[in-house]
Design brief:
single chain, five-stranded mixed beta sheet, 5 strands, about 35% helix
C-alpha cells in the first residue's frame, strides 16, 4: 500500500484505534487494520461495515443506565439521519433546545432522554434492548460511555473499554 500524501510505502498492522470520527469520546475499535506511513506519519484505518458499527455503538448508548451526554444525543440524532429541526419537531421542542442539548448548554430531561432512546430502538434493528430498562435510567449527572468495539465474521460487538 502506498501513502496518498507522500507516495512512500505503508506498513499495515492490527491495533486498537480511538474512533474519534463518530464524535464520541471513549470509543475504541479493537484490533482493526491500520496502515501507517513510516515517512510522513499519515494513516488509514480499515473499518468494515461502518453502518453496523454505528448501530452497535447506538445499541450500547441506549442500553446504558446513565443519562445521555450531549455528544451521545448528537450521535443518535445523526444516526437517525435527522437535521436539528427535524429532530426538534419529533421531540416536540424548538431547534434552539436541540442545539442547547447538543452543546451541553442545557440538560436533556429524563422524558426526552427516554423518548430519544425509544426512537433509536424503533428506527433500527437494535434487538438487545428491553423497554423495561427505561425505568432504570439514572437521574444523576450525565456520564459518557466508554466502549471498545471488536469486529469478527459476524459483525461488530461491544466490549468493556
Amino acid at each position: 500500500m502506498t501513502c496518498m500524501s507522500c507516495g512512500s510505502g505503508m506498513k499495515t498492522a492490527r491495533e486498537n484505534f480511538k474512533y474519534e470520527a463518530c464524535g464520541l469520546p471513549g470509543v475504541t475499535l479493537v484490533s482493526v487494520e491500520v496502515s501507517r506511513c513510516l515517512q510522513c506519519g499519515e494513516y488509514e484505518v480499515a473499518i468494515p461495515n461502518i453502518e453496523t458499527l454505528h448501530r452497535t455503538i447506538a445499541a450500547a448508548i441506549v442500553a446504558k443506565r446513565a443519562r445521555l451526554t450531549s455528544a451521545e444525543i448528537r450521535f443518535l440524532r445523526k444516526l437517525l439521519g435527522w437535521s436539528g429541526s427535524d429532530f426538534a419537531e419529533r421531540m416536540g421542542v424548538t431547534p434552539e433546545t436541540v442545539s442547547r442539548w447538543e452543546t451541553g448548554a442545557a440538560r436533556m430531561g429524563p422524558s426526552a432522554d427516554r423518548l430519544l432512546r425509544l426512537m433509536v430502538v424503533h428506527e433500527g434493528p437494535v434487538t438487545t434492548y428491553s423497554l423495561d430498562s427505561l425505568k432504570g435510567i439514572a437521574r444523576e449527572k450525565a456520564a459518557p460511555l466508554r466502549l471498545g468495539l471488536r469486529a469478527d465474521e459476524r459483525g461488530w460487538h461491544a466490549e468493556a473499554a
